[in-house]
């Protein structure tokens, strides 16, 4: 069974009497355990698509299935974990208490929670910070806590909305390598929204290139770099080839600019 | 450590002593009449004389202020929770609170005294509760509306119930705001409890002692009771600060 099936999904927002088409007839399938990145310029609807899959918004038309269930049922069943650009930790809860938040909300027993939190802080390498508070942690460490929290209920799907967008380049590359390792350990499918081409190529099995106004999928690029991805990969020819392929798909000549303008909704830029 | 304490505590203490000295000398040298301004030494003497009854009066007024503060604050917090959750209630309460905010509530004291009878403590407590309600309500509502979008998304992703969101995110996030309201309310509680006694009713509190001393031209004694009111206000204020420290250290 596929992790996510997006079929003919459109989403438009009403902004000051005008309608902005954020997504236009988007279809995408993500297989179980697959790592898929969504990349594109601002306004291409990549975050909107992620929010629709998470059922934080609902599509104007089209259908979304997560593990064969409706997006709503998948959310109610906690079939996915989610990480946002800001860690969104609760400042008054310790790191351990932040990680166990979803478990607490869903009535998991105290002993089971304690065990799971111990595993998770180990997984993200923050064991010695379990009793610290978010303000005492760096941005990268906070984001690792957010990832641990998203993995708390062993979801088969991880949704990540530019999770490393606010981190510096060095932290970012280290986090990417850790994410590859964690994904290998958890075997979860990942949908990863990003602005960064190297990041998308380094992490993904497939990169979905999107174009803005209206948000559409322009190309889907397979990245065959194998499952073991270490720091060395960043200097290899195959990695550069992937980066080039994604870049060309992103910046390549847009098809018939003038003809589609009428159908593109409001162009505010 | 002791050095910083000395540096922080010493200047205000010295300033206070200097002010008292200037006051004492000014009153003596300029021969200011006691009904205009009694000397600190005269007030101090009276303080020693009336201390037993001052203590009783402080307890009476303090209890009124405390009951009014607790009841008014609890009501304000409950209504704020309702207003932040149910839009209709917000629309109903907001104008009423605005109206209460501009009413000089202590001026209602004579009316309430008639209503509850002259031997009842209730009018003072009701007045304190109403006075306290406004700052606590306004600040709590503001605090409850501070929820970050990322926290809202997160709780929706977790399919958390309204009650869980309130308990886990909204209320802990609003605590600093609630305590801002309570800090203001704590001093207001003592002030309004004292002033409410100016308008008749039971003669057991600080306010009634101040008026009766002044009516008997015993000005140093009136000032001694005013001093008691100041101390009572300080106790309420610092107690609220201490509770805030305890509550916000680990929400």
Overall description:
The complex is a heterodimer of chains A (269) and B (251). In chain A, strands 6-7-8-3-9-10 form a 6-stranded mixed sheet, with helices on both faces. A 4-stranded antiparallel sheet of chain A has the order 2-1-4-5. Chain A has 10 helices and 10 strands. Chain A has 269 residues and is α/β, with parallel strands linked by helices. Chain A has 2 domains: 1-79 and 157-249, Rossmann fold (3-Layer(aba) Sandwich); 87-154, no CATH class. Chain B has 251 residues and is mainly alpha-helical. Chain B has 2 domains: 1-32; 39-249, MetI-like (MetI-like fold), CATH 1.10.3720.10. Chain B has helices at residues 2-29, 40-85, 87-102, 109-116, 122-144, 149-157, 162-196, 206-215, 219-249. Chain B starts with a helix and ends with a helix. The mean pLDDT of chain B is 88. Classes of the chains: A alpha/beta (269), B mainly alpha (251). The A-B interface holds A 51, 54, 56, 75-76, 78, 80, 82, 84, 86, 88, 90, 92, 101-102, 104-106 and B 148, 150-151, 153-154, 156-160, 164, 168-169, 172-173, 248, 250-251.
